Amino acid sequence: LSLSSSSSTTSTSTSTSTSLKNIAAHTATTAEHPNMVKVDTARLAFKALGIGSMLSIGGVGLLTAGIFKVCGCNNLEEMVTMCKEWTPRKRRELEKRFGIEPKSMQHEDVKATKGMTEEEEWEYIKKKYIPELAVDGKDDDYE
């Protein structure tokens, strides 16, 4: 019993002396460098996150505004319409350039209706999927 208590006392005194040495070293360093400032790392990280977020949001906003002006759009509707037309066209150009054929183009219905007019495509779809509409041969529109 006495042996274990003396070893714990020794380890406690060793750790205390080590802590005191660290404090003394820190105090000496601070005394040598009086301009040394303590930094709150959590606050610094929070500020960096805030500044980074503002810069990224602002940058995307400026980029979008620049594209809006360069395209000559007068309102948001024109911009959305232009993007809806431009995006698929560019995608198809890239697919041709790299020789990529989308999986949707490999579907049997897409292959079967290739080169058909819109009316012919409707007839094909009706015959294949809704035969009761194609039986009489007329196109009954419900308006």
Explain briefly what this protein structure is.
The protein is an all-alpha fold and 143 residues long.
Task: List key phrases describing it.
143 residues; 6 helices; elongated; single chain
What does this structure look like?
With about 140 residues, the chain is mainly α. It is built from six helices and no strands. The protein has helices at about 1-30, 40-70, 75-100, 110, 120-130, 130-135. The N and C termini lie far apart (about 100 Å).
The SSE string, one letter per element, is HHHHHH
What's the shape?
elongated
Mean pLDDT: 78
The main sheet comes to:
none
Helices, by number, come to 6
Quaternary assembly = single chain
Which runs of at least 5 residues are low in confidence (pLDDT < 50)? Answer: 1-12
Question: What share of the residues lie within helices?
Answer: over 70%
Helix/strand structural class: mainly alpha
Our Rg estimate from Cα atoms comes to 37 Å
Report the span from N to C terminus: 99 Å
β-sheet strand percentage: under 5%
Number of strands: 0
Question: How are the elements arranged and paired?
Answer:
Elements lengths: L1 H31 L8 H30 L5 H23 L9 H5 L5 H12 L1 H4 L9
